[in-house]
Amino acid sequence: MSVIITLSSSIIHTHPSLFTRVKKDVDIHILMISVIVPAYNKCDEIEKALVELIEVMERVGEYEIVVVDDGSYDGTSTVLRRLGREYELTCVFLERNVGKGNAIREGFLRSKGDIVVFTDADRDLPPSQIP
Fold first, then answer.
1. Which end of the chain has the least Cβ crowding within 10 Å, N or C?
2. What is the pTM of this model?
3. Domain of 69: which CATH number?
4. Residue 52 structural domain
5. Which residues of 10-29 are buried (b: 16+ CB within 10 A; e: fewer)?
6. Each residue's pLDDT tens digit in the chain (131 positions)?
């Protein structure tokens, strides 16, 4: 069974106890965390976002990052193929844009973690917010 956490400013500000509860009840360092990152036409932003996310996750423990390219046409897939090799990311390439919800679902289906976290490729919320 996986614990699912969605990272968005509304959830963090509205429900900060969610993160406290996870930290107190479970030693997350012994659990694998999957971070799902849906991306659509983020060629200019995705590398910086993923490198920052990787730096944060390296301090957390066992993790995987699943990036879902939701049918981008701006070169995002080219950047992801390179980053996937460099950083051992799991990259999923959808042939056409199916929407953020479906992209998240595809990432979730490929994730292996005990805890699954969703975050956006635009870095509206800093990766440091991941517990």
1. N
2. 0.78
3. 3.90.550.10
4. 3-8+31-129
5. eeeeeeeeebeeeeeeeebe
6. 455 555 443 333 333 434 444 455 556 568 999 999 999 999 999 999 999 999 999 988 899 999 999 999 999 999 999 999 999 999 999 999 999 999 999 999 999 999 999 999 987 777 777 76
